[in-house]
């Protein structure tokens, strides 16, 4: 952890290195997931039929999936990882959410 302020952080994690990029997030009703990593399967391509988490529609491009959702329980979150760098932000920290911000953080 080298930079953090309440609902976001930046860190270096040498134990989990991604060879290019992966991330996911939601901003209000827009969701996305991206992955360009040799150790991870490609994301689906085309219109994705997924009714989980209030998904209205999803479009997959192999390395990026974008969609609309009606689930606003976590209205603003994101998790991104590139090489050994991790970045996460979440408007309402929630320990049950997983890889984003689980509690308010501070690190300067």
Q: What key attributes describe this structure?
A:
108 residues, single chain, 10 strands, flat, 56% strand, mainly beta, ten-stranded antiparallel beta sheet
Walkthrough of the structure:
The chain is mainly beta and 108 residues long. It has one domain. The chain is built from no helices and ten strands. The protein has strands spanning 3-6, 8-12, 18-27, 30-36, 45-48, 55-61, 64-69, 76-83, 85-90, 105-107. It has a ten-stranded antiparallel sheet, with no helix packed on it. A hairpin with a 6-residue loop joins β5 and β6. It is flat, with a radius of gyration of 14 Å.
User: Which structural class do the helices and strands define?
Assistant: mainly beta
The end-to-end distance, rounded to whole angstroms, is 9 Å
For the largest sheet, list the strands in their spatial order. 5-6-7-4-3-8-9-2-1-10
The number of helical elements comes to 0
Low-confidence stretches: none
State which percent range the strand residues make up: over 45%
- Give a short account of the largest sheet: 10 strands, antiparallel
Rg value: 14 Å
Count every beta strand, where a strand is a DSSP E run of 2 or more residues: 10
What is the helix/strand order? Answer: EEEEEEEEEE
Approximate helicity band: under 10%
Shape by Cα distribution: flat
Average pLDDT taken over every residue: 84
The total domain count is 1
